[in-house]
Amino acid sequence: MRPDTPAENVDHTAEAARLERIAGLYPEDAEALLLRAAAHLELSGDRPAATALYDRLLSSPDGLDDPPLVRALKASNLWEYGHEAEARAIIEGIRLAAPRDPAPWVIVAEALEGHDELEAAEETFTEGARLLLPTDAEPPAATHPLLYGRHRVRRMLGLAHDDWDTLADTLHASPVSLDELHDPKRIWSLGSDNPVELAAEISRLQAELGAYREALSRPFPVAVLHWPASELTELLSAYPTLAAEYPSHETHLSTIESSLRELSSSGTGNLGIVTGTVPSYEAFAASEQSSPEDMTLLPQYATTLAARGRAVAWPPQRGAGCWCGAAEGYEGCHGA
Predict the structure, then answer these.
(1) Residue 285: enclosing H or E segment and its boundaries?
(2) Contact between 41 and 51 (Cβ < 8 Å)
(3) What is the pLDDT tens value at each position of the chain, 336 positions in all?
(4) Could you give the 3-state DSSP secondary structure of residue 224?
(5) Cα–chain-centroid distance for residue 122?
(6) Are 240 and 228 in contact (CB under 8 A)?
(7) How far apart are CA 147 and CA 188, in angstroms?
(8) Which stretches of 88-214 are assigned E, i.e. beta strand?
């Protein structure tokens, strides 16, 4: 399924089964693929099967990249089909663990909000924001949902704007302001007999839906392949003919940055970088029934990694480290 496929045209059960099969073929990506499969199972209405997938991930002997995220998704799903006590216990555990990733905070806060626990939701959004928002720099894009969710809940509670609410208004790029989108009185417009009020509410809802679609249905990035120094050394040692493509690691890094800038200046959006490994590349070449020395495989390999969710967005957020792995920030390294 393409990421931009309309939801009404998706067989969620079949898509979940497909993703589970792919996870078996690519165990290094199993966590991301099985999370997507669980989401499809939730959309299909088979919430117990989604919980079984979350439990499968949490019991994985190899460990997870983001256990708090999986626990948060499990808690949200459990609450939706009657397991409130267990969901609350998991949510409390996540809050006590204080994860350094915004996603678990947003998921558990929205679960509380969705069950009319507005005060607890506001406290959870605020805890996450206090922990993760930088004090002297622009908030990273990943933290924006914390601010937006906190703004929404505070509007429903009738609380006055504070500095973070103002910041959320500033960061929000939709034509309809957050204050309008989160106005509690909007619910009354939906029951109005006035065509003007109904038309205005439809316009607001369309703007809100457009923002969600842009965030959730964006196709995978146009990605450029990056080899860390050790991996490139191993690659060229095993396949010397690829030296024509990669004369040196420094040249390779410079080429990545210049290629991305050229794509950006030509109007190409949604750019990213994927990091290759020699075993993964060899497995890909074998699946294509070709030799790893075939240079035409390199862009195909990059596209495959991007489709499997391995791409990191380019350019990095302001103040973030450089994509090349250097200790200094992007602005002082390849972004200079």
Answers:
(1) helix 278-287
(2) no
(3) 334 444 556 788 999 999 999 888 888 888 988 999 999 999 999 999 999 999 999 998 878 889 999 999 999 999 999 999 999 999 999 999 999 999 999 999 999 999 989 999 999 999 999 999 988 777 888 889 999 999 999 998 989 999 999 999 888 877 777 887 787 776 556 566 777 767 776 776 676 666 555 544 445 678 899 999 999 999 999 999 999 999 999 999 999 999 999 988 888 878 889 999 998 899 888 888 889 999 999 999 998 888 777 888 888 877 678 888 887 888 888 887
(4) strand
(5) 22
(6) no
(7) 25
(8) none
Q: Where are the alpha helices (DSSP H) in the chain?
A: 12-25, 30-44, 47-58, 67-80, 84-97, 102-114, 118-132, 144-157, 163-171, 178-181, 186-189, 195-216, 229-238, 249-265, 278-287, 297-307
CA nearest neighbour of 112 among 100, 101, 98, 126: 126
Tokens coding 33:
């693929």
Phi (first) and psi of residue 223, to 5 degrees: -115, 145
pTM: predicted TM-score of the whole model, two decimal places? 0.65
